[in-house]
Amino acid sequence: MLQLGNWQFESVVNGTIRLDGGAMFGVVPKVLWSKSQNIDLKNRILLATRTLIARHLPTGRIVLVDTGTGSKWSDEEAERYGVESTPEAIDKALSAMDASASDVTDVIATHLHFDHCGGMVDWEDAAGGSVRVRFANAKHWVHREHFNHACAPTLRDRASFLSVDFEWMGRDERAQFVEGISPTSDLADLKFELSHGHTPYQLLPVFDLGGGAELFFVGDMAPTGAHILPAWVMAYDLFPLKSVDERVALVNRCKEHDTIIAFPHDVRRGIVRLDVTGKKPKVGEVLCP
Ligand SMILES: [Zn+2]
Predict the structure, then answer these.
(1) Average pLDDT of the chain?
(2) How far away, in angstroms, is 113 Cα from ligand 1 center?
(3) Confidence of residue 186 (pLDDT cuts 50, 70, 90)
(4) Is the pLDDT assigned to residue 184 strictly greater than 90?
(5) Three-state SS letters, the chain
(6) Structural domain for 79, as ranges
(7) How many domains are there within the chain?
(8) Cα-to-centroid distance, 114 and ligand 1 (Å)
(9) CATH number for 87
(10) Residue 142 CA to ligand 1 centre (angstroms)
(11) pLDDT at 205 over 90
């Protein structure tokens, strides 16, 4: 567990998925990206799905950022994306903090792709039936415009959304819709920023660590350490040039501020500092594996 400012952090691997390596690196040739990746016979690379747990010490709030693929997968569906889900890893990490699922006060869904929000709900009884909210006492934050997009995705990105994961938010008072282009947060020492390159209105939390330092959960703006290079943009991104600009801004931010980065998909590195001293940015110190 990492303690920084008013916060304790843990980056929890709640499962793994395998996605097409070419899609994960867009126009970057395989001879370049394959050096650093674990590739299977179907050309898929291994990705972790991570939950960031953040406990705010002054208030006791427990915030989860993203919840992974969750428990609702049939064997056949799981095979397509190589989904291996271990949602109990979140409970285990909470337990190490002397907490449980019912103590979670806030769940932030950066966006509603199935590998980020599938763990918000489980099947209530049988598969295919109704769902129950897993962190029953928590407010669940998502940006309104992203929710609207997820409910009516494009032909290009609709495979990334499983409506069973999030449609409950439209009728449940535990859903909290963040509004506008400069959203504010009523959570102490936490603010929201937006990213639009990967998907519209991705909601990214920035934790204030005091003294100008911050921890930035970068979501799928930069899913792994390999994606810190601004041009290594995923083919999944709807607006790739915007993704490039957002990554350049991220690197500049790390040059100008004491910014720590939390990744959603890196297999080995959950929370890091970037090394931005050289010509190309790279992952520096690993604070949480
Ligand atoms: Zn995504």
Answers:
(1) 97
(2) 5
(3) confident
(4) no
(5) CEEECCEEEEEEEEEEEEEEHHHHHCCCCHHHHHHHCCECCCCEEEEEEEEEEEEECCCCCEEEECCECCCCCCHHHHHHCCCEECCHHHHHHHHHCCCCHHHCCEEECCCCCHHHHHHHEEECCCCCCCEEECCCCCEEEEEHHHHHHHHCCCCCCHHHCCHHHHHHHHHCCCEEEECCCCCCCCCCCEEEEEECCCCCCEEEEEEEEECCEEEEECHHHCCCHHHHCCCCCCCCCCCHHHHHHHHHHHHHHHHHCEEEEECCCCCCCCEEEEECCCCCCEEEEEEEC
(6) 2-288
(7) 1
(8) 8
(9) 3.60.15.10
(10) 14
(11) yes
Confidence of residue 179 (pLDDT cuts 50, 70, 90): very high
Indicate the pTM of the whole model: 0.97
Gap from CA of 131 to ligand 1 centroid (Å): 22
How many Å lie between the centroid of ligand 1 and the Cα of residue 280? Answer: 24
pLDDT tens string 96-118: 999 999 999 999 999 999 999 99
98 CA → ligand 1 middle, Å: 31
